[in-house]
Design a protein that fits this description.
By secondary structure, the protein is an alpha/beta fold. The protein has four domains: about 5-105 and about 290-310, Nucleotidyltransferase, domain 5, CATH 3.30.420; about 140-285, ATPase, nucleotide binding domain (Nucleotidyltransferase, domain 5, 2-Layer Sandwich); about 335-530, 3-Layer(aba) Sandwich (Rossmann fold), CATH 3.40.50.10490; about 540-589, no CATH class. It is built from 24 helices and 18 strands. The chain is globular and about 90 Å long. The N and C termini lie far apart (about 85 Å).
Length: about 600
Amino acid sequence: MERSEKIVGVEGGGTKTAWVLVERTGIGGADPGAQLRILDQGRLPPSNFRLETPDRLRAIFGELPSEIDRAGIFLAGCGTTEDRESLSRLCAEIWPKARIVTGSDRESGLAAALGNGDGIVVNAGSGSSVTGRRGDKIENAGGWGHILGDAGGGYFLSIQALRLLLHEYDLHRGEMQFAAKVLHALSLNNLDEVVRWAETADKMEIAMLAPIVFEAAARGDARVTEIVENGAQVLSENTEAVASRLHLLAPKVMLLGGLFHRDSIYTHAFRRRLKKNLPDARVATVERAPELGAAWLAADLSDHVIFQSRLPESKIDTLAAALTEQRNPRSENLEELSPRALVELFVEEEKSVQEALRNAIADLARAIEIVSESLRNGGRLFYVGAGSSGRIGVLDASEIPPTFGAPTDLVQAVIAGGVTALYRSVEGAEDEKGGGALALDERSVKGIDVVIGITASGRTPFVLGALARSKSIGAKTILLTCNPSGSQKVIVDLAINLAVGPEVLTGSTRLKAGTATKVALNIISTGAMVALGKVRGNLMVDLHASNSKLRDRAIRLVAQLSRSDYESARQQLKANDWNLRAVVDKIDK
């Protein structure tokens, strides 16, 4: 009798954990089964075996599908027999009934690229490594980590380019176009800020500058081109060394990783270097992701099987039905409008923002009550969002400490993709429910806290995952959305629907939806601070007088409350070390 198996394949490293759930059918029948059907896939935070704690790995694996028959878990840093045994024991806690196969991410890369065949896999992503196989013999080169090795990876190229930038500045004080590109990409203002950023940036953040390096090389910057060529040379030398040790004269060389898949200039540079010493090498790019190789290894099949993709049609249909994704009939000829007519259309459309907010007055008032009660009892407020929604949350949260003198952890913002997502899109960061749940685990969200999920469409997986985790631990949950139909499917304590209608530019929720969201958060956070006694009349009595503008505001505030002149108010603040609250309390007495 035929049956099926569900298999999870995981490839984890220092920058991400990629996973896939596949189904193998036909087991026990006449056909041994050479196809695996993809059911679901996604990405979670990093899971390098050497860098993450067992508890952290348990938390990450706990977000993966639980009802499975097999699991293939292949992590960077899992290189020894002892490592495999330890990882297997940990996985058995998560999937006690599953057959588990563990190993290094080199193995899943080999499986994805070569199946059971011979050849060499050159991996260039944030890091780099070269792995070859001939029969039962495996040879490696590189892959020593970003501190001591990984030459040729994105981190290596980016660090070399940043060093060049500073070196050129020290020698010539001349302007490099590359420097302007780096400052723009990081939203920084000068090279001193770049240095401070690099001191705290992690491997992934630095490696994400690689596209700028390739762009500069493509423009013909000779110095940056040399860095790219040097990276390709190191990878070529490692490939030649592996081929020599395996006695492969015409090896199949498979290129894996983001640098090869995204930047053809790097692929061409590597091919050119390799052909000099290995002219008969057959170079190609790997089409299959390493997590699929992990699933194939877990399936324990002798042939390199075919994976059948299954598009997440239901998710696509749900998004297409969202109000924020509909076309606005009043702007269908947008490109034909004069500048004045375009402005008039935008201004007219903003009326729907006010109407949406007016219709949500009762819910916004309830949100203030929920947040105020939590903060009074020692709780915290969290905004969770992705893309424009996440950035709006970050903006409002960052204004609370200077405006109201509140602790920096009282109101926190969680954005899919982390700080990098503030100034550039982080691909796929919003698509994983588990990522949102884990992000709140990292912030130690408790039952006394409040979590506001911000998603214009009402369906962003990262946000929904965060709300579900918050609900499970007893925290109060609020959903802020511009798609009323989406909120009906989410279980929260309060849903605030801001039905602003279709955008002038279809799907661009940074427009009306963004404006309505910003105003709503302003109302909620300001209302909560008023309830906590941080406002006197309409005056900010707890603001931090940290610059000349705020000191001037504090002086004028004291002058009004004490009915004194400007200089007397300034002297009162100065005598109290510019502690506005202390002066106000003395005035009240």
